[in-house]
């Protein structure tokens, strides 16, 4: 039921397309049944007693119905492709935007390689079911009912005999669906693990080679690959078995119709026309049933994918107000009152009853041993994580507000490490302020001591590869600082931004920064005493 709800909710945007295809499918069914009826008339009435011209008219009618049927099928195919492409794009965008709303630093975070796999394979699987398979199932069901009713009109006993096979198909289907879903889930999970390993191998290629860990990594991928292959084969065997069982059932059904018809012809109970119709109708009942059986595994696979996509929706970031950014022009201070925090239940407390007041406009150096909780402090201020108890409050001239996502516009955060993306230096900077003028970009680069950019042959339009590839660590760090400087914000959170800089550049950087931002409240994490001595306050964590 929950899957039905998901499909209904997500059919938005392609409902008209689906409706048109169902109507077209109905028309197609009507035409196919018309062909059956016209064939019967051609044989029983026109061929036996009619004139040549009547026969020609009848044959033309059949040909027209056949051509119309084929045209509608092609149109259906085209519309199905269109709906599929549209749904994939829509779902991908929706899931992509959720990436920026999910709660961060959760214990059960999904691996980035897994996210990539879900965004490709799972989205394709559910879109295929939603846009292609399900509408086809509706049409096939209608076709089945239509053919059944027409057959009942010709000979009700035979129709019932054939339809009795269906419960058998349902029982077999139910038996395999449960196992099929389990195998599919484990195939998808392994796919995610493989993608995660591949992604890490690309990203940490140099490290792996230096550690001579290539063989180790290849063995891990091979293990996963072997397990996945075994599951794929298990699933195929399962499908072969089920198709064999169902194929036999329907094959026998066809034979039953054939023998029944032959017997009827012998006893004179039916005409040659009825016999022809029988055989056509048996085909028309079998074909939708077989198509339904074909659609069945894909639908099962896609329910596994829905579960995996839903997992990505979970854990929306908390926000106290209605999502509007709050921007304040006053100087801002940050007060931490008795803050206690641990990352997950059972973990040790990273912070216990921590209190401190970062006064408006002050520059505070935050020092402490590795793992003491300095970065965690920044995450709390940015509200990426929330205290288990205690409060983090922003305050200023007549302004007080609990730390919240809506206040992020007032905070500039420059994390440690290389955080540049591929593309030009300009684009890396514009990410922080899309409408920044050239002058603003130049000023930011100068303040962050990144003047070296102007000496590059392509200057600010130099193209970088992944993670700012093409630059040294220290150069990338300074561009990341310039990017932060383009943001508005009365509070700067700088996490070891000068760790890759030489002493002279580091001193120049902080003196330019403090000179150009005299009233900005700056919290900077550092391990260097010299940097700390440039600040108004020191906080040991
Ligand atoms: N996402 C997380 N999940 C669980 N524990 C975490 C997570 N991030 C950090 N921790 C733990 O919280 C503690 C504080 O980490 P934090 O990154 O704040 O330290 P730090 O003082 O910034 O260290 P460093 O100077 O090495 O950057 C560490 O013991 C770390 O193991």
Task: Give the key terms.
about 550 residues; alpha/beta; ABC transporter transmembrane region fold; Rossmann fold; 2 domains; four-stranded antiparallel sheet; 16 helices; 11 strands; elongated; binds adenosine-5'-triphosphate
List the helices and strands and how they pair.
Layout: H1 2-9, H2 15-49, H3 52-98, H4 112-154, H5 156-163, H6 165-203, H7 205-210, H8 214-267, H9 272-313, E1 333-341, E2 351-358, E3 363-367, H10 374-381, E4 389-396, E5 399-402, E6 411-414, E7 423-424, H11 425-430, H12 438-447, H13 452-455, E8 463-464, H14 473-485, E9 491-495, H15 503-516, E10 521-525, H16 529-533, E11 537-540
Parallel strand pairs: 3-10, 3-11, 6-9, 9-10
Antiparallel strand pairs: 1-2, 1-4, 4-5, 7-8
Residues 105, 343, 350, 368, 370-376 line the site of adenosine-5'-triphosphate.
């Amino acid at each position: 039921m929950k899957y039905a709800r998901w499909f209904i909710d997500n059919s938005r945007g392609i409902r008209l397309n689906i409706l048109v295809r169902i109507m077209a499918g109905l028309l197609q069914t009507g035409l196919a049944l018309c062909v059956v009826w016209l064939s019967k008339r051609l044989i029983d009435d026109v061929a036996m007693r009619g004139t040549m011209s009547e026969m020609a008219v009848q044959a033309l009618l059949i040909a027209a119905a056949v051509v119309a049927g084929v045209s509608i099928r092609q149109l259906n195919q085209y519309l199905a492709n269109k709906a599929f492409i549209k749904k994939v794009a829509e779902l991908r965008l929706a899931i992509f935007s959720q990436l920026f709303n999910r709660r961060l630093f959760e214990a059960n975070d999904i691996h980035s390689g897994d996210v990539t796999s879900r965004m490709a394979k799972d989205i394709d699987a559910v879109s295929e079911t939603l846009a292609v398979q399900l509408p086809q199932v509706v049409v096939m069901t209608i076709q089945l009912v239509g053919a059944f009713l027409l057959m009942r009109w010709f000979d009700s006993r035979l129709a019932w005999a054939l339809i009795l096979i269906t419960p058998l198909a349902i029982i077999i289907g139910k038996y395999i669906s449960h196992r099929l879903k389990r195998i599919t889930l484990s195939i998808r999970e392994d796919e995610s693990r493989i993608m995660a390993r591949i992604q890490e191998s690309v990203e940490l290629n140099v490290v792996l080679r230096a550690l001579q860990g290539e063989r180790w990594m290849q063995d891990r991928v091979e293990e996963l690959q072997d397990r996945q292959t075994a599951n794929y084969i298990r699933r195929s065997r399962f499908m072969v078995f089920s198709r064999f069982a169902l194929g036999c059932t329907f094959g026998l059904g066809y034979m039953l119709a054939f023998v029944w018809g032959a017997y009827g012809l012998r006893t004179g109970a039916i005409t040659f026309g009825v016999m022809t119709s029988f055989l056509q109708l048996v085909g028309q009942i079998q074909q939708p049933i077989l198509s339904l059986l074909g659609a069945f595994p894909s639908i099962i696979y896609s329910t596994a994918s829905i579960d995996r996509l839903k997992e990505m929706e979970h854990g929306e970031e908390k926000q106290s107000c209605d999502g509007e950014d709050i921007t304040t022009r006053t100087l801002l201070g940050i007060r931490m009152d008795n803050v206690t925090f641990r990352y997950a239940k059972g973990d040790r407390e990273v912070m216990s009853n921590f209190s401190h007041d970062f006064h408006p406009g002050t520059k505070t150096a935050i020092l402490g041993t590795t793992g003491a909780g300095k970065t965690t402090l920044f995450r709390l201020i940015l509200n990426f994580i929330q205290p288990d108890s205690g409060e983090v409050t922003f305050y200023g001239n007549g302004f007080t507000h609990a730390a919240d996502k809506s206040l992020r516009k007032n905070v500039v955060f420059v994390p440690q490490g290389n955080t540049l993306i591929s593309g030009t230096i300009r684009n890396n900077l514009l990410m922080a302020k899309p409408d920044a003028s050239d002058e603003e970009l130049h000023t930011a680069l100068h303040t962050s001591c990144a003047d070296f950019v102007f000496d590059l042959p392509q200057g600010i339009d130099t193209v970088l590869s992944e993670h700012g590839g093409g630059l040294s660590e220290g150069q990338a760090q300074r561009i990341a600082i310039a990017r932060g400087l383009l943001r508005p914000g009365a509070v700067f959170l700088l996490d070891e931004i000068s760790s890759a800089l030489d002493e002279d550049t580091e001193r120049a950087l902080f003196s330019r920064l403090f000179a150009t931002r005299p009233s900005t409240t700056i919290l900077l994490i550092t391990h260097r005493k010299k940097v700390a001595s440039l600040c108004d306050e020191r906080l040991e964590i």
